[in-house]
Amino acid sequence: MTHLRLEQLAAAKIETEPYEYVVVPNFLSAESLKRINETYPPINQGGSFPIESLESTMAIKEVIDELDGPAFQKLIEEKFAVDLNERPKMYSLRGYTRGKDGQIHTDSKDKIITVLVYLNETWDKPGGRLRILRDGKNVDDFVAEVAPDKGTLLVFKRSDKSWHGHHPFEGPRRSLQMNWMTSEGSRGWHRVRHKISAAVKKLTAA
């Protein structure tokens, strides 16, 4: 089954102010979103979690396989005028947002492109809506706000001004993040850090 609506990404306009980004609503269909949420791993604590332990029956794995494909990469390269050939990719899942999450940041310098796919079926909360910001100081000085629901896709090119964040929210908030990284070493470091974080959370919950 095809989950990604690549034709919608192809038709979407890339924005350039205050930095390069594109938003594609309904990048995943309602049917895909339903299947994903029915088999989504039970992530009940904050932080990013690696994908290596996902079971083959989980629909989110199918989404990851499609994101790994050449068609998606080609569209991103065309949209952002960037060569991603042989650049390593890193994936992580989120299932729970803490009140301290969402602080303004640009993403680390070893990330080239950030891809976010939002997996919540609906979102009626005022917090937890990612904002594309004009600066690193004011979360209310934004040019776009993205609700984390309905299979929306957000992609941006990381830079020293790719500021983003959201108002506080604590509770379930599902998303898949993918990054093209500058090097295999940088990907490895992030993966180790995520694994350690997940292991500490598991021990703490036990």
In total, how many beta strands? Answer: 8
Number of helices: 5
What's the CATH class label? Answer: Mainly Beta
Structural class: alpha+beta
Distance between the termini: 37 Å
CATH architecture call: Sandwich
Fraction of residues in helix: 25-40%
Sketch the topology as an H/E string, one letter per element.
Answer: HEHHHEEEEEEEH
In CATH terms, what is the fold-level topology? Jelly Rolls
- Domain module tally: 1
Describe the structure.
With 206 residues, this protein is an alpha+beta fold. The protein has helices spanning 6-11, 30-38, 59-67, 70-80, 184-205; strands spanning 21-24, 89-97, 111-118, 130-133, 142-146, 153-157, 164-165, 171-181. The strands form 2 sheets. It has a 5-stranded antiparallel sheet, with helices on one face. The longest helix is centred in the last third of the chain and has 22 residues, at 184-205. It is globular, with a radius of gyration of 16 Å.
Outline the fold blueprint.
Layout lengths: L5 H6 L9 E4 L5 H9 L20 H9 L2 H11 L8 E9 L13 E8 L11 E4 L8 E5 L6 E5 L6 E2 L5 E11 L2 H22 L1
Antiparallel strand pairs: 1-6, 2-8, 3-6, 3-8, 4-5, 4-7
In brief:
The chain is of the alpha+beta class and 206 residues long.
Labels describing this entry:
206 residues, 28% helix, alpha+beta, Jelly Rolls, disordered C terminus
